[in-house]
Amino acid sequence: MTVLSTEYTWAALGGDPALAARVSAVVRTGVLASRLPVRELARACVGCCALAAAELGALRAGLPEVPEVRVDDGAVATAFVSERHLLVDGRAPVTFAPLSRFWRTADGWVRTHANYPHHRARLLAALGTSEDPASVSAALAERSSAEAEETVYAAGGLAVALRTSEEWAAHEQGAAVSARPLAERGRLDSARARVLPPSGNDPLLPAAGVRVLDLTRVVAGPVATRTLALLGADVLRVDAPQLPELPGQHADTGFGKRSAVLDLAADRHAFEELLAGADVVVTGYRPGALDRFGLSPEALAGRRPGVVVAQLSAWGVYGPWSERRGFDSLVQVATGIAAIEGSVQEPGALPAQALDHGTGYLLAAGVLRALSDQVREGGSRFVRLALAGTAGWLTSGAGQGPTAPVRSFGYDGPETWLAERDSALGRLRYALPPVSFASGPVDWVRPPGVWGTDRPRWV
What we know:
With 459 residues, the chain is an alpha/beta fold.
């Protein structure tokens, strides 16, 4: 079994090995080109998600066999840069703020993330500078990379020093991540088997009627819940009123969902009502950040037996960085990816936010697999992934070539996998979902609405 394959990801999520043969690929040259095998990672993540959807769909529809899954590299590559293809009334949203970039330090490089206003303010406070990039550059040039990293993080901002893969492997957090599997999953109790009503098969919607409470932000978590919405789930994303999502990110990842705001501390009654009706809870905040609201897997299972809890973080739940904030671009820098794609003298980046997107599809697959396991065996379930774990998986596949000759096709651009529709946000051009299986859905039922305007309750 090759490392960067659907067979590998399927096994990581506890799937029946025999079902992996149901997946085929349309291999295309020239997509997601990079030094690391990003195309193979993306194909494996989407293929695993589509197979998990087909498996659950077959269970619910009473099909004699799991539908065939077909993964097209063109669709996958387009979806992995969906934020770059998004247009709202013909305008492209800003994806990275001016202060989210690489900076030279006294002994190397750091990368900062300042897309959100509160992160930008903390970065500037830590450095004692104005928003002028020249001022930030001068402040960082006086510091070592390690000093810059620690100073900014101590102030609640985000900055990560450039490391090689070898330096990350020797780092305490790198060792903590590498000691864990790609996906952690398990059973929390002996809750009775889940009973899902039979579903139709035109289209086959594996998650129809499943209520998903979406407590995620940015890209990876919202990609996971966007995928569950595609497959029929009732997804309600809940944000704190004081932390609005960036408009472009909401427009890109809000397909199929409703969006509400709720102060979890001030309105616990409304929040508990949502939890009481949720089948799946997906969280994307720092490990432990939501525990005071009773959102650890164990606490949720105690109050809502039969729940599926899906957790996503940047650095994992173990090690000295477990409680640190992080984003795809920063994880690339810490784990050696930026040095591989460029060099220690001039760092580079992957052709997509592949850690975000790949982890998002794997998290959705983990939820779908947990639902299938519940139908068969019962039990509250949890699944947990980290961007740093996906990064380690990608770098472990460096140098991987095809195991057998395959027929490949050209790539003439993304147009085949783009669509347009009207929405409350304006006319949208967007990437179609890459998750595809026989009789499955081809697009979301609803476009994204205006952020935070839905009521925080189940329909």
